[in-house]
Amino acid sequence: MSTQGATTADAFERRLTPSPRTEAERAALVAEPTFGVVFTDHMARMTWTVTDGWGARRLEPYGPLQLDPASAVLHYGQEIFEGLKAYRHADGSVWTFRPWANAARFAASARRLALPELSVEDFLGSIEALVDVDAAWVPGAEETSLYLRPFMFASEAFLGVRPARTVEYLLIASPVGPYFSGGVQPVSIWVAEDYHRAGPGGTGAAKCGGNYAASLLPQQEAYQRGCEQVCFLDAATGTLLEELGGMNVMVVRRDGSVVTPALSGTILEGVTRDSVLTLLREGGHEVVERDLPLGEVLEGLRTGEVTEVFACGTAAVVTPIGRLAGEGFDLQVNGGKTGTVTTAVRHQLTAIQYGRAADPHGWMHRLA
Ligand code: COI
């Protein structure tokens, strides 16, 4: 799924707010953005019915939704979402990164959750339309961006368990800084052994709210143990690294090779994951996607065979992991410091995203 051609951006009716935040209010809100707390003046919206398909493309003032208490999403969780970012370049222009990949994943998630697919033209059209009216909300400071959150949910008021016949699509946007409150610093990971994120044949590869809901209790227990994130093991054997609560994981070995769990159907096909693997391969690193036993990583940390571990995702970008803990082990990674491979690939990726480096893959798409 890819289009460099026309999108439906112009079809979004502009029902703009009569009271947008003033420039001074916006500047204060954007100054040091915490992840996902502040939202722009508008949201993009579309409605789907089983009879008419997708329609009613519109931009509306950002605000609360009116929802029937019987809406299916509130009972059965029929919902999916995406995450991507808009970046301000030095010349003031605004760009996004591989939106076609997010559109394709959104469609795949929709299929798995029995929701209607949204075309790439509408996915990208909603982003172009919203960023057009709210472009001033894209921050310009280092490590900041406008986080775009497209999502879709079952809005039909009906308590029977079947796919909903009415569905809402919305896109909201939030000026953000680093995902972790400590900034771009090594984070600690707790490996959960009692809980799994997804099982074979489940929804692990879909970006649906339920996967994240299931990660919250183990995530809470990770916090209680002094860790910022939880790492899940596979449900089938309980021995293989899968992914973190909201990001993929990669391990760097002494010889410079990088190992990451293969896309088995139970982990998310991260856009950042794929981009990082491409950059590493091009940089001469051997990249191996395969089963990654926890035991191998722990042994490697003890012997020095594993030199770095990092997390990657749209929100996390590339985040170093400085500590890996779980029942019966608590190990530092690279002395708790950010490693050179992690630093280099993060730098390379963000240089493309922020327009400081060439974009040989055609990953960037101009929005404003
Ligand atoms: C993202 O990286 O965009 C996500 O959706 C994950 C979440 C932890 C914010």
Automatic annotation (TrEMBL):
EC identifiers of the protein: 2.6.1.42
InterPro entries membership: Aminotrans_IV, Aminotransferase-like, B_amino_transII, BCAT-like_C, BCAT-like_N, BCAT_family
Biased composition range(s): Basic and acidic residues: 11-23
Gene3D superfamilies reported in the protein's UniProt record: 3.30.470.10, D-amino Acid Aminotransferase, subunit A, domain 2 (3.20.10.10)
Region annotation (Disordered) ranges: 1-23
Cofactors (names): pyridoxal 5'-phosphate
Recorded catalytic activity of this chain's protein: L-valine + 2-oxoglutarate = 3-methyl-2-oxobutanoate + L-glutamate; L-leucine + 2-oxoglutarate = 4-methyl-2-oxopentanoate + L-glutamate; L-isoleucine + 2-oxoglutarate = (S)-3-methyl-2-oxopentanoate + L-glutamate
Enzyme class: transferase
Domain of life: Bacteria
Pfam families: Aminotran_4
Pathways involved: Amino-acid biosynthesis; L-isoleucine biosynthesis; L-isoleucine from 2-oxobutanoate: step 4/4; Amino-acid biosynthesis; L-leucine biosynthesis; L-leucine from 3-methyl-2-oxobutanoate: step 4/4; Amino-acid biosynthesis; L-valine biosynthesis; L-valine from pyruvate: step 4/4
GO MF: branched-chain-amino-acid transaminase activity
The UniProt record lists the keyword Amino-acid biosynthesis: yes
Keywords carried by this UniProt record: Amino-acid biosynthesis, Aminotransferase, Branched-chain amino acid biosynthesis, Pyridoxal phosphate, Transferase
Entries under SUPFAM superfamilies matching the protein: D-aminoacid aminotransferase-like PLP-dependent enzymes
Database matches in CDD domains: BCAT_beta_family
Similarity comment: Belongs to the class-IV pyridoxal-phosphate-dependent aminotransferase family.
Name listed for the protein in its UniProt record: branched-chain-amino-acid transaminase
